[in-house]
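Example 9 (inverse folding). The structure is encoded as follows.
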């Protein structure tokens, strides 16, 4: 009887031991990181000793900005994953009081508000960037109505965007201050950092050391393209250096990891859109626009930087950094050179003295579509000196890329209204207004230059208004009203361009677009 009882106790003890849940804690080892424009994909490895039966594994010190829906876990053979649950840091959940948990919830609420505001701010910044990047389109259109419409949107929409960004920034500041104060309070209650943890329930068929692979996406990381444009002189080719300005504020240092930069979007909607009926009607201009921000991929031509390998598919370009790289979580960005090369370019000086009394050096790069460039800010160096910033606008369909290299202070341009030839006259039922201008140009450079000057004459939008050109020593485009002069100026040479026009319109009427 005692022997049977002893056997039963041993059996119960064995079953209890088998069914006991084993609690384990492990840390990830980051191996590969793909940095997208506004996200990063982390691929890491977790090695731990598992017990035969049910195990609960806690992977701690994960970034708090992890996108929970993106978490993927795979394991070695002989392991069955039962459940995956993102949780607040397990140490903090154990150590904190109820008051601490309430503070944690409050921080989460404020963080949601902050994320919402940041998303709105980013959208406004992107809209503003596109408006500014496409501002020059108003000088290329052949329709006067479009010029006025574009000018109207610049005058109305840009101030509205800046005002909205200002209001958002005013809202962000107190939220940030509140979060900082709450986190300080929480830090006094617990010495652990504010990280996310992952709870994984799994079954193992033996006691052994096993590996798990962990994939997930995080916010607070990304990269932006930036450029250096270097020109020795207006007879030399242009050197384009493309770089990546990488930011990562995830709270986790990336140590000795394989890093790849990508132009893709891992959370882009992958659903094929449907075509709706295309209706034709009289055009009515709307004050709001939507812009397609997708960059069209093209064949690479720039020489890759040492240690960088470029790959391309139908959806994105990737730049793999060969050397293992360390990127600390910091407010300071890291600049990585991607590729560079010296390219043939045409150079031309241009001036629009009605809007700006300066001459600008313009570079035109043919066949730029083969360069795989993204729109971004560029630092300009001319004649071995830094001259300022410009914007590399790749959102255009022309086969020649136009880049403004900045103002040249050695070329003086002045637009002067000739007073003695300006007059207003009254005729029967009509009045006339005559205006005349001189544009003076002086080349103070030591070399000869080619300069294109642009101005304009009014275009009548009303049949009761007549426009007549009185004098012009340049080229006139009757469709756009644009006046153009192409000048060759030797060193220290000065030239004067002249033009005038007359408007005839009903008396007792006021008109716009006089000058």
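The amino acid assigned to each position is listed next.
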């Amino acid at each position: 009887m005692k022997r049977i009882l002893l056997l039963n106790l041993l059996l119960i003890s064995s079953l209890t031991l088998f069914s006991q849940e084993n609690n384990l804690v492990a840390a990830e080892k980051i191996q590969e990181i793909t940095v997208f424009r506004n996200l990063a994909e982390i691929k890491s490895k977790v090695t731990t000793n598992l017990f035969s039966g049910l195990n609960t594994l806690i992977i701690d010190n994960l970034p708090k900005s992890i996108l929970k829906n993106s978490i993927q876990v795979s394991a070695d053979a002989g392991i069955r994953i039962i459940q995956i649950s993102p949780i607040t840091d397990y140490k903090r959940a154990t150590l904190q009081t109820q008051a601490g948990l309430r503070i944690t919830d409050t921080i989460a609420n404020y963080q949601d508000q902050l994320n919402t505001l940041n998303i709105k701010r980013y959208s406004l910044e992107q809209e503003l960037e596109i408006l500014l990047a496409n501002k020059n389109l108003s000088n290329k259109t052949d329709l006067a109505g479009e010029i006025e419409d574009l000018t109207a949107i610049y005058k109305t929409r840009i101030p509205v965007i800046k005002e909205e960004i200002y209001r958002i920034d005013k809202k962000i500041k107190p939220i940030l201050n509140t979060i900082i104060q709450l986190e300080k309070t929480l830090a006094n209650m617990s010495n652990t950092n504010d990280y996310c943890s992952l709870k994984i329930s799994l079954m193992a068929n033996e006691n052994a050391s096993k590996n798990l692979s962990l994939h997930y996406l995080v916010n607070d990381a990304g990269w932006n393209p930036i450029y250096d444009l270097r020109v020795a002189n207006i007879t030399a080719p242009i050197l384009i250096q493309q770089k990546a300005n990488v930011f990562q504020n995830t709270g986790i240092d990336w140590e000795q990891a394989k890093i790849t930069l990508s132009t893709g979007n891992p959370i882009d909607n992958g659903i094929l859109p449907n075509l709706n009926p295309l209706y034709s009607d009289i055009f009515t201009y709307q004050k709001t626009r939507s812009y397609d921000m997708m960059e069209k991929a093209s064949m690479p031509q720039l020489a890759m930087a040492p240690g960088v390998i470029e790959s391309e598919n139908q959806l994105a370009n990737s730049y793999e950094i060969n050397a293992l790289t360390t990127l600390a979580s910091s407010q300071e960005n890291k600049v990585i050179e991607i590729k560079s090369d010296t390219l043939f370019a045409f150079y031309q000086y241009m001036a629009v003295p009605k809007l700006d009394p300066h001459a600008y050096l313009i570079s035109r790069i043919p066949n730029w579509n083969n360069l795989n460039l993204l729109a971004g800010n560029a630092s300009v160096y001319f004649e071995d000196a830094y001259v300022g910033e410009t914007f590399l606008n790749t959102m255009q369909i022309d086969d020649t890329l136009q880049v403004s290299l900045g103002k040249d202070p050695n070329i003086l341009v002045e637009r002067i209204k000739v007073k003695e030839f300006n007059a207003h006259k009254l005729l029967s039922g009509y009045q006339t207004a005559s205006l005349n201008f001189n544009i003076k140009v002086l080349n103070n450079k030591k070399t000869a230059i080619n300069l294109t000057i642009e101005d304009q004459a009014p275009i009548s939008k009303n049949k009761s208004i007549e426009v007549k050109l009185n004098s012009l020593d340049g080229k006139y485009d009757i469709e756009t009203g644009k006046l153009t002069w192409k000048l060759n100026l030797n060193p220290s040479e000065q030239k004067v361009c002249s033009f005038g026009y007359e408007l005839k319109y009903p008396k007792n009427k006021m008109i716009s677009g006089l000058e």
